[in-house]
Amino acid sequence: xxxxxxxxxxxxxxxxxxxxxxxxxxxxxxxxxxxxxxxxxxxxxxxxxxxxxxxxxxxxxxxxxxxxxxxxxxxxxxxxxxxxxxxxxxxxxxxxxxxxxxxxxxxxxxxxxxxxxxxxxxxxxxxxxxxxxxxxxxxxxxxxxxxxxxxxxxxxxxxxxxxxxxxxxxxxxxxxxxxxxxxxxxxxxxxxxxxxxxxxxxxxxxxxxxxxxxxxxxxxxxxxxxxxxxxxxxxxxxxxxxxxxx
Length: 246
Ligand SMILES: O=C(O)c1cc(=O)[nH]c(=O)n1[C@@H]1O[C@H](COP(=O)(O)O)[C@@H](O)[C@H]1O
Description:
Blueprint: E1 9-12, H1 18-28, E2 34-38, H2 39-45, H3 47-57, E3 61-67, H4 71-82, E4 88-94, H5 99-110, E5 117-121, H6 129-135, H7 142-155, E6 160-162, H8 168-174, E7 179-182, H9 201-207, E8 211-214, H10 216-219, H11 228-245
Parallel strand pairs: 1-2, 1-8, 2-3, 3-4, 4-5, 5-6, 6-7, 7-8
Helix pairs in contact: 1-3, 2-3, 4-5, 9-11
The structure holds orotidine-5'-monophosphate.
The site of orotidine-5'-monophosphate has 21 residues, from β2, β3, β8 and α10.
């Protein structure tokens, strides 16, 4: 069964205010596939509280904790996330934690009665080629490094990866069965902000992304677009228009 564009969108609720996040999720539920909560809100109020509140609203939860630590510590955190129950559909870990860390996460998750999809974050969409090679001293190109990390994630038993839409084609060719989740989504009318490797929603879907993570263009759209519901309508209309022009 093919998934609609609407269901492929996860809205990033980046706020420390859980009441505001839940109010927005209640308003947008049914209009999108689910909600991504991460470091900001989980640090402010705690992941269990956020997950429970979103589950009460009925939203599908993408828990973006970007785990990155020694294998024993990550395994413990993964068990704690699994214990939060089926509301958590996806969980992120940094691929750069290494294969021992990724394998420990998979083993820990598989030993639990239920588990979310485990997704490896490859190269953050806020990093460009200059930052990767200059600051981080990574020698391969962004795409080569992302594909290398995706292959490693696949070999360790992860279910998918997070990468920019620019790398989707190369990941798909190297790891056909991995789910690919793409942040760095920017409609033409939205500010790039701190994102660097960006693409429009229509182009990201055309590139083959399974899910799009979209934050500020929906949660804080420019005045010409209106409110979050209007932003979603506009995004979906643009996706529809692009697909009829193919
Ligand atoms: O793991 C992520 O979700 C993530 C990985 C990445 O490489 N880039 C990235 O932007 N994200 C997250 O995706 C969301 C993007 O938000 P906006 O830039 O507001 O659309 C944020 O919540 C980021 O934490």
